[in-house]
Amino acid sequence: MSEAVKAVESEVEGGNRLSAFAKREIGRVLALGSLVVIFIFFTIMRPVFASWENVSGGILMSTTVIGLLAIGTTFVIITGGIDLSIGTATALVAIIVGKTVMALDLGVVSGMIVGVVVGGLVGVINGLLITVLKLPPFIATLATMKAAQGLALIVSDMKPVLFTTDVKGWDSIAQGNLIPKIPNGVLILFVGAIIAAIILNKTVIGRYTFAIGSNEAATKLSGVKVNNWLVAIYGLGGLYVGMAAVVLTSRLGSARPDLGLGYELEAIAAVIIGGTSLLGGKGTISGTIIGALIMAVLVNGLRILELQQEWQYVITGIVIVIAVWGDNVRRRRAGETS
Amino acid sequence: MKKVLTIVAVASAMALVVGTGSAVNAADKTLKIELISKGETHQFWQAVKKGAEDQAKKMNATIHFQGPATETMIDKQLEMLDGAIALKPDAIGYAALGTTESVSHLKAAHTAGIPVYMFDTAASCPGALGTASDCALGVAYTNSKAAGSLAADKMAALIGGKGKVLVIGHSQTNQTGIDRRDGFVNRIKAKYKNITLLPVQYSEGGDALKAQEITSAALVANKDLKGIYGTNEGVSIGAGQAFKAAKLTKGKVKLIGFDSGKQQVANIKSGLQSGAITQSPMGIGAKTVEALVNYVREKTVPKPLIDTGFYYYDKKNITDPKIAGNLYE
């Protein structure tokens, strides 16, 4: 706890900016290092693991949904908040997109816009619950998580909404190739990540995201309308939930009301493995992408090795512990020496 | 005196009316049945519910049907079961998620004097099912092991009796999932020596996205993969989508799934998927309600095991009325 306070103080002082920057970079380099080590390990075990077919269609494609969710939720976690609703909200948005697209006979682009807008609205609702009703983010988003799960079932009437045969090109959102050899879903993930990185590092909303996470009270005292910005930040996270939902429906050719529960934990894990602090004030989009890739590479690699599923779970758990523990040890050392 | 007589007469008349009235009610009373299912989301459970509702209407009963959001929420489902017992309905129908965890809860229903008939999946009740059991009267179910071994025979026929086959399960813990897997695996091991089974993979809860990822990885790891057997609707759809993404020519790798649903039926019609096993979900719902109503009203003891049947269907027999009636959108 004292380290956390120290960290916050040093951020606020800004005197140690250079060393704080270096620390952040080391975190990412280490995460990238683990990703490379895991990748090389699986390649040695089974060379076919490194084939482009597996890297693009297996690993990168598997990262699309969780990765987009993780990008959006990185903003939320940097503010010191949490969003548990992103998993079931994905299902709700998917169902609403499916229903709207089918009912209004919308095309691919309008369908994507519907998804992003509805996702953003769910995020805004979370933001309002937190700022207007003053609910802790954990409880507010847990409530939204439950409500979204129920609404997904109600709106869908418990039936999946089928796309592919009826909507031209819906499956190409994730599976087409605007750039040869790279599935569009992967393109969306990386473009989404670049946009998020620019927003986080180069815009006012990004600056306030860090400021609120470092010291909300101080930010408020300096005249920033923290509540408005929080609503915007949760809304921004929601836009990525919307995009994740669209990619999900495209990958499956249908929207299923029973999907999504549990995705929030995978996304949050990716964010934390990527070096973002659950205490807020620290984090990067590239770290999050690396975190999501570590998870995807691990899960895919263990499947390629055809290990018993029980052991796949155990090993995944162990690697998460090692990844985050290693980062903690490094931080503690860095904290002691500085 | 006259007054007294009148009062006595009126009172006895009233007693008669009330008496016979309640007697009539006992036989004709609309029975309240609580059905606790393993889920509500998959259309399979909707078909079970439909079958139960139709049967209840015929027999002057009402049903209240509920189940947890996903088939991994054992605790949630047991809460629903406890809640149903507290309502003191005329009877309870129960599809076991936690086959061992639910036994003590079913005992509580027995203690409360509420008859229980299980459907789809039986709990691991100690001793034989029936009136002597303090757990349940019986179970209306699909013989999932037999259904799994039918899928194995069909798979063997499709791939000419040799090659690599992957089983993707939807649960390692629920009995239906275990039986569908074991029925298939045991049949292959016993009868088809030239078929190699890869280690079974699981898409917990039948998550279609996870099934897609498992299939993609399996296709990369095994260029000579001949067939995939998916143990529920979500898994079958996920596997089919992976075939599409890998741009496999139709039928290069055979896929046998379970249950139906619009997308799976479309995949079978288009040839992306070879076929699937369908149960008779409406039959499961109807037989459960029938058994319970007859027991409560007529004291007819139901059979401890009611097999509700299953079929293999493919592009050719999909419109057969016997099949089509059990397929759901």
From TrEMBL, chain A:
<dbReference type="InterPro" id="IPR001851">
    <property type="entry name" value="ABC_transp_permease"/>
</dbReference>
<protein>
    <submittedName>
        <fullName>Unannotated protein</fullName>
    </submittedName>
</protein>
<feature type="transmembrane region" description="Helical">
    <location>
        <begin position="260"/>
        <end position="280"/>
    </location>
</feature>
<keyword id="KW-1133">Transmembrane helix</keyword>
<dbReference type="Pfam" id="PF02653">
    <property type="entry name" value="BPD_transp_2"/>
</dbReference>
<keyword id="KW-0812">Transmembrane</keyword>
<keyword id="KW-0472">Membrane</keyword>
<dbReference type="GO" id="GO:0005886">
    <property type="term" value="C:plasma membrane"/>
</dbReference>
<feature type="transmembrane region" description="Helical">
    <location>
        <begin position="29"/>
        <end position="49"/>
    </location>
</feature>
<feature type="transmembrane region" description="Helical">
    <location>
        <begin position="226"/>
        <end position="248"/>
    </location>
</feature>
<feature type="transmembrane region" description="Helical">
    <location>
        <begin position="287"/>
        <end position="305"/>
    </location>
</feature>
<feature type="transmembrane region" description="Helical">
    <location>
        <begin position="108"/>
        <end position="130"/>
    </location>
</feature>
<feature type="transmembrane region" description="Helical">
    <location>
        <begin position="55"/>
        <end position="77"/>
    </location>
</feature>
<feature type="transmembrane region" description="Helical">
    <location>
        <begin position="311"/>
        <end position="329"/>
    </location>
</feature>
<feature type="transmembrane region" description="Helical">
    <location>
        <begin position="137"/>
        <end position="155"/>
    </location>
</feature>
<feature type="transmembrane region" description="Helical">
    <location>
        <begin position="84"/>
        <end position="102"/>
    </location>
</feature>
<keyword id="KW-1003">Cell membrane</keyword>
<feature type="transmembrane region" description="Helical">
    <location>
        <begin position="186"/>
        <end position="205"/>
    </location>
</feature>
<dbReference type="GO" id="GO:0022857">
    <property type="term" value="F:transmembrane transporter activity"/>
</dbReference>
From TrEMBL, chain B:
<keyword id="KW-0732">Signal</keyword>
<feature type="domain" description="Periplasmic binding protein">
    <location>
        <begin position="34"/>
        <end position="299"/>
    </location>
</feature>
<comment type="similarity">
    <text>Belongs to the bacterial solute-binding protein 2 family.</text>
</comment>
<dbReference type="InterPro" id="IPR025997">
    <property type="entry name" value="SBP_2_dom"/>
</dbReference>
<dbReference type="InterPro" id="IPR028082">
    <property type="entry name" value="Peripla_BP_I"/>
</dbReference>
<dbReference type="Pfam" id="PF13407">
    <property type="entry name" value="Peripla_BP_4"/>
</dbReference>
<protein>
    <submittedName>
        <fullName>Unannotated protein</fullName>
    </submittedName>
</protein>
<dbReference type="GO" id="GO:0030313">
    <property type="term" value="C:cell envelope"/>
</dbReference>
<dbReference type="GO" id="GO:0030246">
    <property type="term" value="F:carbohydrate binding"/>
</dbReference>
